[in-house]
Design a protein that fits this description.
This protein has 6 helices and 20 strands. By secondary structure, it is of the alpha/beta class. The chain has 2 domains: about 260 residues, Metallo-dependent phosphatases (Purple Acid Phosphatase, chain A, domain 2), CATH 3.60.21.10; about 80 residues, no CATH class. The longest helix has 16 residues.
């Protein structure tokens, strides 16, 4: 550890509980455990004692209401980090509807932004003020500075400062087409960001990116760091690397601090593949062979989305019945089948 410099592990959008039903109706590989594995891998530098602070940027869970057992399982790794004397800050995200389940707040080493507030932390040989607020769905545009001021950050003496939030900032991009956030009631204008912070640590956007300029090319008052999600949650993210950020902030004598290092650490992810099959170009006797051949050419642990197009003679092709599809698929794969001409047809394995 370098005196006067704090090492921060920043992760976000873990979406724990996704595809993890308590009473599954179909026996198939579930992606739910992979989200927990991603969390544990992301926290590895903290469990090794290589960082001074952990920040979770929100959407810890995949929805607002989750079973108590899932809450306990989700926060066990964060509590383990806090037990080592490494503070953990958590921003409630939109999937939590701005609230974190109560048991988390009971740990003295875990600091939750249940309202706009600022935590003063002695870490890395300096005093770090970490300000933040829970997700705001409406009315944020134009009122950000008032909201940040309500966190009381000017009243917390510090060598360096960070702002934590779970929001979209203009200029952030998402999706395979590179959609750019430009306006909206919950989209922050770049020039509204306060300049009193070394960096803004932001969750909500699932693609890793660092914003330094606004839409007009002007430097932002503070850089905005998105680690992205730790796992792919949809096919829109199939080409995105997933991981977390390792950040270093050092004192510079101004009380704001200086962002000296930002390093993205990629996590392993399963490949996602989209395939298409024309049912009207293959007779029923050959459909099974075609489908089997398509799947055999994929990575054995791929997550596959198969679109069937064309109306087959006689209605539902024999080779596309749920049991027959599941019999073709390796147990290590996840495959979803949708038929364009029959929206009610659905097979998930």
């Amino acid at each position: 550890m370098t005196p006067g410099r704090v090492r921060i592990l920043f992760l976000s959008d873990t979406h724990l509980g996704l595809d993890l039903p308590q009473r599954p109706r179909v026996d198939r590989r579930r992606r739910g455990p992979e989200f927990f594995t991603a969390l544990e891998r992301a926290l590895a530098p903290a469990t090794r004692g290589e960082v001074d602070l952990v920040v979770h940027g929100g959407d810890v869970f995949f929805r607002s209401r989750v079973p108590p057992g899932l809450v306990a399982r989700a926060f066990a790794p964060l509590e383990s980090v806090a037990d080592r004397g490494i503070p953990v800050c958590v921003v409630p995200g939109n999937h939590e509807r701005g609230r974190i389940p109560h048991p988390l707040a009971a740990h003295p080493g875990i600091h939750v932004f249940d309202r706009p507030r600022t935590f003063g932390l002695a870490v890395g040989g300096l005093t770090l003020a970490v300000a933040g607020f829970p997700f705001v769905r409406h009315g944020l545009r134009g009122s950000l500075r008032r909201l940040v001021a309500s966190s009381g950050w000017p009243d917390v003496p510090a060598d360096a400062r960070l702002l934590c939030l779970h929001q979209s900032v203009e200029g952030a991009t998402v999706g395979p087409q590179g959609y750019v956030f430009r306006a909206g009631d919950d989209v922050i204008r770049g020039q509204d960001l306060p300049g009193a912070f070394a960096a803004v640590l932001a969750g909500h956007i699932h693609r890793h990116q660092v914003l330094r300029r606004d839409l007009r090319g002007r430097s932002l008052p503070a850089p905005v760091l998105y680690p992205g999600s730790t796992e792919r949650t949809s096919f829109a993210e199939r080409d995105e690397a997933k991981g977390y950020l390792l950040i270093e902030v050092e004192a510079d004598g101004t009380g704001r601090g200086h962002l000296s290092t930002v390093r993205f650490q990629e996590l392993p992810t399963r490949p996602m593949v989209q395939l298409e099959l024309r049912a009207d170009r293959v007779d029923e006797s050959g459909l099974t062979a075609v489908l089997s051949g398509l799947l055999a050419r994929q990575h054995p642990e791929a997550i596959v989305r198969l679109k069937v197009r064309g109306r087959a003679p006689g209605g539902l092709p024999t080779g596309l019945r749920a049991g027959e599809v599941r019999a073709l698929i390796p147990p290590t794969m996840n495959v979803s089948v949708r038929w364009a001409e029959n929206p009610t047809f659905r097979v998930d394995t």
